[in-house]
Design a protein that fits this description.
The chain is of the alpha/beta class and about 525 residues long. It is about 50% helix and about 10% strand. A hairpin with a 2-residue loop joins strand 9 and strand 10.
Length: about 525
Amino acid sequence: MSAYQDAIQTLNALREAQGGKWDTINPEYAARMKTQNRFRTGLDIARYTAGIMRRDMAAYDADTSQYTQSLGCWHGFIGQQKMLAVKRHHGTTDKRYLYLSGWMVAALRSDFGPLPDQSMHEKTSVPSLIEELYTFLRQADARELGHLFKALDEARDKGDQVGARAIQDKIDNFETHVVPIIADIDAGFGNEEATYLLAKKMIEAGACCIQIENQVSDAKQCGHQAGKVTVPHEDFLAKINAVRYAFLELGVDDGVIVARTDSLGAGLTQKIPVSREPGDLASQYNHFLETTPVASAEDVAEGDTLIKLDGELRKPVRLANGLYQFKPGSGEDRVVLDCITSLQHGADLLWIETEKPHVGQIAGMVNRIREVCPDAKLVYNNSPSFNWTLNFRQQVFDAWEQEGRDVSAYDRGDLMNAAYDDSELATLADDWTRNFQRDAAREAGIFHHLITLPTYHTAALSTDDLARGYFGEEGMLAYVAGVQRQEIRKGLACVKHQDMAGSNLGDDHKEYFSGEGALKAGGKDNTMNQFA
């Protein structure tokens, strides 16, 4: 017996036990509503999606071609449409996630208005967006199942038993749109207790995976901006512990923690940790500081800080703002130590924020990390902050130059010029870009590829296209040809916007509740019928 039919029988028995008081309740309708609402709480979602991520991580360890992907979404509707598109074009949501970007929350979801990515937005907006995303994904499930139930009724009415069985099979094997969300908690929005409290809210909203970075919380900067300040390992590990405790308290025992290091681009620290013995974590961190030797009291100014390193008294270089400076060129070494330390103290995945998308650079760091932690793997930001076209054209240029090829026809500093668009170099660069994710998954240990804020850019681009034509000579044709006709030709369900917003679902429920007396919106005069 199918799960759906089993639910009907269970509910029928429950109705019969009420001695006639529930005779107006249709067990099949109730079973449909239960099937359409598989996930009762955010914690149900977190536990379910954590299992997905753990299985995907194991699959990647066995075969690096089994990497995962996501796009950042700033609204529940955007996330819903993304997953509907994934299922429509690729047949399954397998290994496709959602990413919740702190950058987009700051820029698009703050009551203060648009903000830079500096943790100035309300931290409660993060769990609110997680809940919103899952509300829309669950609605996508309910809508698609509702269409299957309608088709089942039509097949039964026609006496088409073969068709009814085929639809029944689709119902029983329905793949949910609910997928893992990798959620950005920035630098934790405060001390470790603040991190724990916010992590709980995020998990309760449905997050199975939380990404946290090693910047100073109150000085947090976007990973692609200057002025980044990191914290000592002990401070960061306390926040990793806080997130793990939140997962365990809420019963999401296999919750996933992504430890992000910004050390590659961060040249400053706010704090000198206390070393208790040579070679401990604090000592290793302090060895990265830019220091000058102290020979006598004359080398020390009023208020200077001194530390002992390798038996020598040294003075860390301190800026006018009180921050301490790291040695130039120490970024990669700090990244490697950050990653090893995080994995050894409870993190599951790594995030290395880089300044360019270069497989060789990423692989060089990952290979060093894997000497200590063989199963190390990354979540990687395929960032819109990179000029991908220029970066890969320059990478091809450099490779050709190293091979001894003649590159005199190209100006390396001007390779973004449209004049090169049809050149051999540009064609190869596009191939490298197309293959970047699979190459980096194979060569550089990248388990998950994401684009942090793509839908920020797509919203701007599509709005620009429509505004240019609609407010110009094209007028209404700009919308008809550029939007509606494209929706129809490409089979986008959203062209029936009433249905997408839940109109048919509401009609179904009205019929369940009121029977023939239901006042429904989907009759013959509903203009949505023009798109049948």
